[in-house]
Amino acid sequence: MIKSALEIARASYIPKKPAVLEKNVTIEEGSPTTAVADLEEIQKLFPKTYGRPIIKFVESDQPRESLSATNVGVILSGGQAPGGHNVIAGIFDGIKRINKDSRLYGFLLGPAGLINHEYRELTSEIIDEHRNTGGFDIIGSGRTKLETTEQFDKGLEIMKELDIKALVIIGGDDSNTNASVLAEYYKSIDAGVQVIGCPKTIDGDLKNDLIETSFGFDTACKVYSEVIGNIQRDCDSARKYWHFIKLMGRSASHIALECALQTQPNICIISEEVEAKNQSLDEIVTYIAEIVAARAADGRDYGTILIPEGLIEFLPAMKGLISELNDFLAANQLEFDAIRRSKRREYIIHKLSEENSEIYKSLPSSVALQLTHDRDPHGNVQVSMIETEKLLGEMVAQKLKKWKNEGKYKGNFATINHFFGYEGRCAAPSNFDANYCYSLGYTASLLVAAGKTGYMASIRNTTAPATEWVAGGVPITMMLNMERRHGEMKPVIQKALVDLEGAPFKEFAKHRNTWAKKTSYIYPGPIQYFGPDEVKEQPTMTLKFEQEGK
Ligand code: FBP
Asked: Of 188, 99, 214, whose CA–CA distance to 474 is shortest?
């Protein structure tokens, strides 16, 4: 395979990991755990795996036990995130250290590979080809939801055939929820297969006190911030466009907030704040238009606006509409699919409650149709398909036109739309993600060796140098609560949304009025792998502010 000069140089990078992982380790157990909410229901649903303690790996003074070869399976689940290959490399090195005859099998294209018995053995040649690279192409990823007993049994068949003792699921909140259901099921039938999760998602919304961040968030935000910085320089040079920049993040606005902290744009909308303040679409449009008008009055007909991808689902009126649409489509998908595209908007208008029908009617037809596109297998609206940046740009233009006619606004408003998401999801991991991912994978192998199941690998103290990081495991059941999915109550990992009382948001809120009025852009530049530590070893600002605030 032909490689770029950087790829060749980067292949020899040895990820840093917690110093304790270089030693012989033993387990330090905390107290029994519960769940984030709905304790009784969760306990009833997870009788075998509920209540387990949090685990920390500490140095042991005993010689390392010789363990028999342990075959492990691995799945990459959901959206790509930088560093996935290093998680797999960490697992590989970890199980080889346990016993050099251990083997690692990768199931192809996500959970579907397990169900359909499609896999490849990951040999040292394959692993070495992929160290420190971006992407999930080593085995591919997919969004098939692992949820039925038939699927679990099918998976078990192939794992028995390959003598696999443990399965590592690398995924986001939904995939790790499924990992905990699978762990419980295999334990309840004495299947002899452990299940371990690893926290992945660029969205940054799989985190809590013990899982400080999901991998990929660091790199993706740095890639987007580089490009936003470049746009801001262009913007300040040409002085004629307003750039509407939508950023990935299916629900939470962590990516938008982090990029705002890194680049200091004129405006950044935070969905969680919109919801908390019960803001309407018109209020958001007015907020943007007022800033555009104020800058125009100062002779600045240009600026940048960051818009989180999930915004539409946080507008209280839209939330009700989407929830009704979700339930309706879950029950009537076949009938809906049979309707001609040109008639679908009309069909939906007549099926919704009066209130939601009115809201639906008021949307531009392109956005209305985008809201009925196929849900992902977890029942989520595919928000990356909804052109919120275009919707807002058009609505602001209309408002400014009205104000111009009323003599309230003098200026020129020209927009350019961007959507940054796929550009960052497969970027080569930053040093932070390269180290974090490798450490997660290595820790997963230790959890396997310790016989644990239903645990997520956890690496803490992540704002310190990597050698001081703390490795351990967290029972997934302690992250669960009951939520409505596809019209039914299900146990799911509670998504971590932007905390409006948290330090990252407060820092943004403190400065945003200045950033709106003045031009205070920051140009972060590209991710660096070589050079001074303050350039190449920085965690995200979100992580820094969050950890400082603790
Ligand atoms: P995960 O939560 O699976 O990591 O995926 C996150 C994400 O990148 C979102 O930011 C985005 O909305 C979505 O995936 C896009 O999905 P797809 O890859 O199916 O287009």
From this structure: 214
- pLDDT bucket at 377, cuts 50 / 70 / 90: low
Say if residue 249 is in the same domain as residue 355.
yes
Domain that holds residue 128: 17-216+429-493
Residue 537 lies in a domain: no
- Compute, in angstroms, the gap from residue 250 CA to the centroid of ligand 1: 7
Does 540 fall in a domain? no
Residues 402 and 445 in one domain: no
Residue nearest to atom 1 of ligand 1 (CA): 79
391 vs 374, residue with greater confidence? 391
**78: CA distance to ligand 1 center in Å?**
7
Number of Cβ within 10 Å of residue 328's Cβ equals: 19
Together in a domain, 232 and 179? no
Domain total of the chain: 2
Instruction: Give the tens place of pLDDT for each residue, 383-438.
Output: 778 889 988 998 899 999 999 999 999 999 999 999 999 999 999 999 999 999 99
Predicted structure pTM score: 0.93
Q: Which has the closest alpha carbon to 457: 163, 98, 194, 80?
A: 194
Q: What is the dihedral of CA 426, 427, 431, 434, to 10 degrees?
A: 20
Specify the ligand 1 atom closest to the Cα of 77: 3
**Ligand 1, atom 7: nearest CA belongs to which residue?**
79
**309 CA closest ligand 1 atom index:** 12
Q: Which of 155, 172, 64, 193 is CA-nearest to residue 456?
A: 172
Residues 338, 487, single domain; the answer is no
Q: Name the phi and psi angles at 129, rounded to 5.
A: -60, -25
Same-domain check for residues 523 and 383 = yes
Residues with active-site annotation? 203
Tell me the pLDDT tens digit for each residue of 44-60: 999 999 999 999 999 99
Pocket test for ligand 1, best of 141, 200, 202 (most atoms within 8 A of CB): 202
